[in-house]
Write a structure and sequence with these properties.
It is a single chain. The termini are far apart. The chain has one domain: Nucleotidyltransferase, domain 5 (2-Layer Sandwich). By secondary structure, it is an alpha/beta fold. Helix content is 45%, strand content 17%. It has a 5-stranded mixed beta sheet with strand order 3-2-1-4-5. A hairpin with an 8-residue loop joins strand 1 and strand 2.
Length: 209
Amino acid sequence: MFLCDSTLGVDEAGRGPWAGPVVAAAACFGREFRELSVFCALRDSKALSPLARERIAEELALLQWTYCEYAIGVVSSSEIDHLNIRMATREAMDIALRELIARIGQRHVPYVCRIDGRDGFGFSELPVIPKYVIRWDSIHPEIMAASIIAKVERDRIMTEYAREYPDYGFERHKGYGTREHAYALQRLGPCSIHRKSYRPVQEATFGRG
């Protein structure tokens, strides 16, 4: 039976892009996880190559229910337009935390929940005590794991969207505001996964009108 520590880590990927969802992950470790080689490989996802992130994410998936556990929350671009990106990020974190706690139970209630950033979201309906500090994603391994899982999951989603919308280059820029993406927006206009509330997308829409 998997027994986790009393600390959870949460991080997100995809606040800044012009297209696609925001994805959050919540992760926790068993007591023996720190003795594994993958523990030493953990970094902030931004400090790792895509290949390194994929390898770590695959290893974490294999270790679920034995040495670690995690859950993912996804909020779509249309929901981002409806809620705004800040509240959509909270919603993604809430989904991930709810799923994780459902999996691991309430052995250590309330859980200390470490979150990178300064948003200060509350999760009053969940048995967690949120703790926020900027740049925790480069310090605490639970947040590093969540950061990697969220980034890899979002990249996979955007690669799938690239097959549906092949002319935008989503497999390369993952929806971020690159020159290639800006040019595609000017040429093609927004597609269904673009965040219509974002100014560059609005300007591309009006420019074509």
